[in-house]
# Entry
Amino acid sequence: MGFLSKFSKALFTVALAGAISASAFSEGEDYVKLEKPLNVGQNTLVKIFNYACPFCYKYDKSVTPKVVDKIPGLKYEPFHLKTKGEYGELGSKIFAVLIVMDEAKGVSLFDENSLFKKAKFAYYKAYHDKKERWSDGKDADVFLKTGLDAAGISKVDYEKELANPKVVELLKNWDDSYDVAKIQGVPAFVVNGKYLIMTKSITSLDSMAALIEELLRK
# Structure
């Protein structure tokens, strides 16, 4: 076999491997393109969640932070779904305030000092581990106190921060999460605001990270 023939065969092998690699993830099976993109920037992973969602809790404990850590420079943006849970709307307001406060201090939402993280896990643990229901929607003050106490924030400071334009904008953006959640429920992971990952296709942290990286390049 001549040099050119060997070279052509090598190129074919490389191309074949590339084709196999490129077809590892497919639209409709591993992800879908949203008809209405979320209002986020590039190189962003959005997680739509709700405090009353058990799978959101599980992902936040052992999946989400590890996957984000695998992709250098990836920006993580949590969107709270206000239409689920007796206190969904109030939960969104609390989380939005705490996220903006964290960002103002330059604290990562995965950091142990994150006000958002403290409140989020306080709600997760109360709802799922302790089966707390805060009078099934009839005691908003007690629900609010659970999150604010965990974050170490006063009600006065919380109510003042609600008027912050960044909080108002964040809550407005989160309204779009309902249309995404209708597709397959929560948690819902969206890459660059355009591509919804089909959670049934997630088999490992590495495969999820690989899919996110592929979608970031689109």
Summary: Residues 1-21 have pLDDT under 50 and may be disordered. The two ends are 40 Å apart (CA to CA). DSSP finds ten helices and five strands in the chain. Residues 98 and 116 are 5 Å apart (CA to CA).
